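It is worth pausing here to work through a concrete case rather than discussing structure prediction in the abstract. The textbook approach is simple: state the sequence, then state the predicted structure, then interpret. We follow exactly that order.
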Amino acid sequence: MRIAIIEDDVSQADLVRIWLVGAGHACHTFTRGREFMRVMARDSFDLLVLDWELPDVNGDAILAWVRANVREPVPVLFTTARDAEADIVQALKAGADDYLVKPLRKQELLARVEALGRRARPKPRVAEHLKLAEFEVDVDRRVVTRHGAEVELTQKDFDLAVFLFRNVGNLVSRGHILESVWGRTSDLNTRTVDTHVSRLRSKLGLVPENGWKLTAVYQHGYRLEQVTAETKAKDTPSQAA
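Step two, the predicted structure:
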């Protein structure tokens, strides 16, 4: 998963990042709440690890902002030294999905993160097929078929297709796509994403008249959606990248 760690204690943030990266996750660390909110306004994450006590904006205020401004229901794991029942209840009622009391323990943290990830965005096993409307994706053989006919895709086009199909309905940022499809490669321009998305839209016919919308969201990223007959009638034949 792509995880944001919001923690002002640098040593604590580094430790959590090391644990999560070691478990195969991609992590971004923020030491200030307002810095995180500026990024979150245009970026996307699979999970947030959020400290309660921050120097500029408390975690509960950040949580309230996320729930009010982020359309996708991103899971939030609260971490804090507060261990009173009233504090835990307050955090959960405010919209936190889980709560850990410091000092954090590695295996417990990793288990809670994995559990939240499974509940939020369950993904099929690698060897399974993805089946969405007229598409079938054989992840193991790296083959996409549409109406039973194989679609010729490059390796990166295939990886991008799998990522988008696994996130149908979710708004994903260009940075999120770059990290998930191309790896943590900072020298790639986001135009690379736009070019591949445009090409994939054409190859797979991801346009409203076929029951799909793959649209760019200004200053953020992309969303792949299935559309209804009513939506098809309203939309233009295709969407520009």
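Step three, interpretation. The chain has two domains: 2-120, 129-234. Residues 106-120 form the longest helix (15 residues).
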